[in-house]
Automatic annotation (TrEMBL):
Pfam families: LacI (PF00356), Peripla_BP_1 (PF00532). This is LacI family transcriptional regulator. Residues 1-55 form the HTH lacI-type domain. PROSITE patterns: HTH_LACI_2 (PS50932). It comes from the Bacteria. One of its GO terms (molecular function) is transcription cis-regulatory region binding. Keywords: DNA-binding, Transcription, Transcription regulation.
Length: 337
């Protein structure tokens, strides 16, 4: 049965039947219930393409992402995407991953929004000053940011307490007697990296420990860069006794550099990783970590915020900050130097 046949059966116009099925407010509740019951009784299935055109919707949410090879092997990335997919699927919405050139990412945003190819966008890896968020806000296109940014007006976001996480890592290492503590961070244009560095520096200064510039190594968001920066630290005449790594991708390279130098985390040098490293990827070792609890549930939360934004809920109320959790392992120890 098609729409016209259903309308004829009910002695209503096809327009009234369509508007009743799509929830328009100008159709009475009595008529809506009558149309819905008849549609169910006669097995009517609306044409999804026609319905989307009528409502001006795509039933699709996008996430534009300049994918790197390491992302495809990142279990946290997989879990977050899996959580979003499940939540959107329950709402009858598809999640579209859109690959973009890292140097022309904004152009992809402009193309996707201009063509209205999706109903909303999840913005990942926010920057301290994020031109993507400013663009989306300027054209009033629905979005949710995975991470915070410096913006003039409220916007929807989900994030972890990055500052508190690295504070906890440094405080633990200081309590173990370490003073010469290094930080390997992602590029500081990324907001999470800047927040984690701020937490690191604040904890060191609060303890009266000088933060040496040579111990702050920036730019690692891949295993390759993590390895290179760790080698740079190990070549110093007075190398650090402990290292905090602000992301799990760089940590893989840090562990590789330690193996090449025939050093072991927890025996020769202390190591804490923001996000952690699975034991099977760390040769069975339990790495002390600042955990971001349940990445799959984080994906569910991101999707829920997006659905609320699409329903028109107030953006200022759509902001969620989760605490981090310090999880002790075997990769840090009392300073013996």
């Amino acid at each position: 049965m098609n729409l016209r046949e259903l309308a004829l059966l009910l002695n209503l116009s096809p327009t009234t039947v369509s508007r009743a099925l799509n929830g328009f407010s100008d159709v009475s509740e009595k008529t809506r219930q009558r149309v819905t019951a008849a549609a169910e009784r006669h097995g009517y299935q609306p044409n999804s393409t026609a319905r989307k055109l009528a409502l001006g919707r795509t039933d699709c949410v996008g996430m534009i992402y300049p994918l790197q090879p390491n992302d495809l092997n990142d279990p946290v990335f997989h879990a977050i995407v899996g959580g979003m997919t499940d939540q959107f699927n329950d709402a009858g919405i598809d999640l579209m991953l859109i690959s973009a050139d890292n140097h022309n990412e904004l152009q992809t945003y402009q193309r996707i929004t201009a063509g209205h190819r999706v109903d909303g966008l999840i913005v990942a890896r926010t920057c301290v000053f994020d031109e993507r968020l400013r663009y989306l806000q300027s054209c009033q296109f629905p979005f949710v940011a995975h991470g915070r940014s410096q913006m003039d007006t409220p916007y929807p976001w989900f994030d972890y307490d990055n500052d508190a996480g690295t504070r906890a890592a440094v405080e633990r290492l200081l309590a173990l007697g370490h003073k010469r503590i290094a930080l390997i961070s992602a590029p500081l244009a990324l907001n999470f990296a800047m927040q984690r560095k701020q937490g690191f520096v604040a904890a060191m200064q609060a303890a009266g420990v000088t933060v040496e510039a040579s111990l702050l190594q920036e730019g690692a968001l891949t295993a390759q860069m993590g390895e290179a920066l760790m080698h740079r630290l190990l070549k110093q005449s007075l190398r650090p006794t402990a290292v905090v790594v602000d992301n799990n991708l760089a940590a893989m390279g840090v562990l590789a550099a330690l193996r090449q130098a025939e050093l072991r985390a927890g025996t020769d040098i202390s190591l804490i990783v923001f996000g952690g490293v699975a034991p099977e990827l760390a040769m069975g070792q339990n790495i002390t970590a600042i955990r971001q609890p349940d990445p799959r549930e984080a994906g569910v939360t991101l999707a829920s915020l997006m659905l609320a934004r699409l329903r028109g809920e107030d953006t200022a109320s759509l902001q969620v900050l989760w605490p981090t959790l310090l999880q002790p392992g075997t990769s840090d120890q009392v300073c013996l130097v």
